[in-house]
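Project standup — Tuesday

K.O.: blocked on the structure for the chain from last sprint. Re-posting the sequence here as requested.
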Amino acid sequence: MYVCICNGITDHQIREAASNGCTSVAELTMRTGCGATCGSCLDMAGDLLAKALATHDLPLPVLGLQAA
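H.V.: unblocked you, prediction finished:
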């Protein structure tokens, strides 16, 4: 879904920015342009960024392999 209509930024792009190390809304704006025009999307963008940062992908264990 589009979060920032002014700059065409989607929720997928916000999650991608979070997975690439983006940790604040200010940094998100610098990286993607989200919120840079009118700013009405910043609350939603901040919520999505926080949720993305709180979600951790748990690695699946690899069975049968021993550490060298």
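K.O.: great, moving the ticket to review. The chain has one domain: 2-56. Helices lie at 11-19, 25-32, 42-54.
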